[in-house]
Design a protein that fits this description.
- The protein has about 290 residues and is an alpha+beta fold.
- Helices cover about 35% and strands about 25% of the residues.
- The strands form four sheets. The chain has a four-stranded mixed β-sheet with strand order 6-7-11-10. It has a three-stranded mixed β-sheet with strand order 1-5-4, with no helix packed on it. The protein has a two-stranded antiparallel sheet with strand order 2-3.
- Strand 6 and strand 7 form a beta hairpin.
- The longest helix has 25 residues.
- The chain starts with 5 loop residues before the first helix and ends with a helix.
- About 10% of the residues have low confidence.
Length: about 290
């Protein structure tokens, strides 16, 4: 497998902070998001690479393995287990040698190396296996902080899901993976969130996007409409002579910012002006008169 430089993909240095990585990811995700680049295969490929790089570098454990093992980072646990096995084998061999030479000069050497009689019979502690799970949420579920109960390895686990969790984001629940061996610590649980877009709203970062129908008369004359948002209904003024496809921004009516209480993105509304149908002759005559004026 060819080496993939995740730092290069996100355009950051190896010394980048978690904040630097998050900022770079959001900037590139907005640029190459499939919703903004329909039918662009290069943008889709780039977006997948960006997501993959972010998934690894935004997770401290995965980033540590990547920095240490490079392209083989996914096999880091296997390497570590093999290393522990070799150390344990070497230790066992030393213990056997210690027993055979307990009264000789080599006895002192191994006693110093392994801690004397306190080292006899010592067992290597093994960390438990990490568990991975995927949790599916609707966009409306990710809008507010909520609690959910999961069943992991036969045990029920109640977790708090902060508002603003992102699609593809992974969180770690320490100590809820597989049990350790020989008194070693338990592994961790990694939960990756899969969040579906709403039928009306599309999310991009902390912002929401929606296309709203507007009748021709309100578009021409102006007026006021009631608009549904994820936070309830709002009244929105429509400027006279509003053009089809024009956009308005509702500040603070977007998605909550992850782990930043009271901070929200914006809602961008695109107007879709509906042309009236089934006009009467009188109405058609009015339009003809307008077209000649």
């Amino acid at each position: 497998m060819d080496f993939v430089d995740y730092y290069k993909i996100l355009g950051v240095d190896k010394t980048a902070t978690p904040k630097d990585i998050k900022t770079a990811f959001r900037k590139l995700a907005r640029k190459y998001h499939p919703d903004l680049n329909p039918d662009d295969t290069d943008a889709k490929r780039k977006f997948q690479q960006i997501n993959e790089a972010n998934e690894v570098l935004s997770d401290p454990e995965k980033r540590k393995k990547y920095d240490q093992y490079g392209k083989d980072w996914q096999h880091a646990d296997e390497f570590e287990k093999q290393k522990q096995y070799q150390e344990q084998s070497a230790y066992a061999a030393g213990q056997r040698f210690y027993g055979a030479q307990s009264d000789g000069e080599f006895s002192d050497f191994f006693e110093t190396l392994f801690g004397g009689s306190a080292g006899r019979g010592r067992q290597t502690k093994y960390r438990g296996e990490d568990f991975k799970a995927e949790l599916h949420l609707d966009l409306i579920d990710a809008y507010k902080t909520q609690k959910q109960t999961l069943t992991v390895n036969g045990k029920k686990l109640r977790i708090t899901i902060p508002a603003g969790i992102e699609n593809g984001q992974t969180i770690k629940i320490p100590g809820h993976g597989g049990p350790g061996r020989n008194g070693g610590p338990s592994g961790d649980l990694y939960i990756t969130f899969s969040i579906a877009n709403h039928q009306t709203f599309k999310r991009l970062g902390d912002n929401l996007y929606a296309t709203v129908d507007l009748d021709l008369y309100t578009a021409v004359l102006g007026g006021e409409i009631t608009l549904d948002t994820l936070d309830g209904q709002v009244k929105l003024k429509v400027a006279p002579e509003t053009q089809n496809g024009s956009k308005v921004k509702l500040k603070g009516k977007g998605f909550p910012v992850y782990k930043r209480e009271g901070q929200f993105g914006d809602l961008f509304v695109t107007w879709n002006i509906r042309i009236p149908t089934n006009l009467t002759e009188k109405q058609k005559e009015l339009f003809r008169a307008l077209s000649k004026s």
